[in-house]
Amino acid sequence: MVPSTPPPIIFVFAGQGPQHVLMGKRLFRAYHTFRQTVLEMDAIYQSSVGVSLIESTGLFSESSSKVPEGIWSAEITLPAITIIQIALYDLLISIGMQPHALIGHSAGETALVYASGAGSKTMALELAIARARSMKLVESAENGMVALGCGLNAAVGLIEQAKRKGDGVLEIGAINSPDAVLISGNGILLDHLVDIAKAGGIFARRVQSLVPSHSSLMDSCRKQYLEGVTAVFSRHGGLHRPIIRTYSTVAGQPRVIARFTPEYFWDNLRNPVHFHQGTTSVLDDFPGAVFVEISPHPALSSYLASSVGHHRVLCPMRRQKSPSDTDAEALAFTRTVGDLIVLGINQIDLTSLYGRSSRDPAYNIPYPFTERYFPMRIDGPRSRSGALRDGSCLHLQINAKNHPDLAQHVINGEPIMPGAGFLDMVSGIDSHCYVSQKFPVFKTWSNFVP
Question: What's the mean pLDDT when you consider all of the chain?
């Protein structure tokens, strides 16, 4: 049953997100708004970097991908994820999906600058580029992050055990849920951490990243980071205050973002991510909210689902398993739109997707129990069940004697007219016959003997 009151909608902007060469290709091809935003953002990227991201990597296009195998550099990942998020945001807005609030995770807060109304698309992408350039300085196969399937206290204990095996940095990078923590640090210690956790039956895996974000290892790029981000803010004047209520997940920051600053974005990179705390604040203000993850593939949905339930967490994109699996993204998007309608979101208008308004009178769906009659215009009678009389399909001689095969369809000891028989009759009635929506699908044999 559709709720009488639509639930609040919260857009959740994932951080790095899963990186894959096929992300966005299907939406780029299928939806004009998504494609136009990607092309607009690529022009901004080319103006800043000197080359087209699409042409240099093959992302979004039908050409072969030129992205290097293995873990991508932040110089590709961060601008790409920002472009994907802004394009997906524009697509959702184009069909009437207006969020009540926004929240981001790590680098996902970059796209929030645009989505919240605090800055332009150009500013958001330039921030992603500046962020990527400084993070390049600390990229190393020896550094990274590990996702643990345990609580904070257990994670601290695992860190202490791993540090006994050598010197280095291991720090809490993010608290995603009561049972999911992210650890940042040096590679060798991270490997020890994974081994210790798995030996104790705790889920542990390396994250696809060469950067130990949200740890003290980022201090070495602080100067370059602030210089680059400050230059972006200087080029784009204003107070950079969100118009849409925007929640912070940065440790040490107020729960609602009053304005974006270069210092805020440094804390965003350096401090731990308190994602669970941030989403708890959202639920305090918007009970019963539906969360829509803005990401190339569900990355935060499982953390959210543990708190609010799977039916209230949606992601409009999903990774293709192979180049031939071309419908995965389009199916994920349309399914999300359908799920939102079922949840009571009634402002959705598909005009921009299909070129015709969903409020067109031709699409009006009446109350399902209202009797309506529909003329069946066909060339003439084609029934194999007997001659028509008075143009009505209800005069057909259908009984156990004339149709012994159909009489084998027995329910509760009584022959019942199969639904396929009604379809056959509909295909054989003439242009004067009318079919009522109230007419039952199944009737006993006695109802069909004149």
Answer: 82
Return d(Cα 279, Cα 62) in angstroms, integer. Answer: 37
The label of the residue with tokens 């939406």 reads 27
Task: Summarize the chain as % helix, strand, coil (round to 5).
Answer: 45, 15, 45
pTM: 0.77
Is residue 435 very low, low, confident or very high in pLDDT (cuts 50, 70, 90)?
very low
Q: Which amino acid is at 131?
A: R
* pLDDT reported for residue 10: 96
74-94 helix and 108-115 helix, angle to the nearest 10 degrees: 40
Q: Is the dihedral of CA 355, 359, 362, 363 positive or negative?
A: positive
Residue 312, phi then psi, degrees to nearest 5: -110, 15
Three-class SS of residue 182? strand
Structural contact between residues 215 and 144, judged by C-beta atoms closer than 8 angstroms: no
pLDDT tens-digit readout, 217-226 = 999 999 999 9
Q: Cβ contacts of residue 383 below 8 Å, gap of 6+?
A: 393, 396, 424, 425, 427, 428, 429
394: pLDDT strictly greater than 80: no
How many Å is the Cα radius of gyration of the chain? Answer: 29
Model confidence at 77: pLDDT above 60: yes
Distance, CA of 22 to CA of 319 (rounded, Å)? 7
- On the question of pLDDT at 272 being above 80, the answer is yes
pLDDT (0 to 100) of residue 161: 95
Q: Each residue of 34-43: b (16+ CB within 10 Å) or e?
A: bbebbebbbe
Tokens of 148: 């643990």
CB within 8 Å of 287: residues ≥ 6 apart:
none
How far CA 401 is from CA of 339, 449, 450, in Å, comes to: 48, 11, 14
Q: Coil, strand or helix: which one is 280?
A: helix
**Residue 113: predicted pLDDT:** 97
Q: Is the pLDDT of residue 382 over 50?
A: no
Task: Return all residues near 114 (Cβ < 8 A) that are at least 6 apart.
Answer: 86, 89, 120, 121, 123, 124
Higher-confidence residue of 17 and 273: namely: 273
Q: What angle separates helix 222-235 from helix 121-135, to the nearest 10 degrees?
A: 160
Q: Identity (one letter) of the amino acid at 429?
A: I
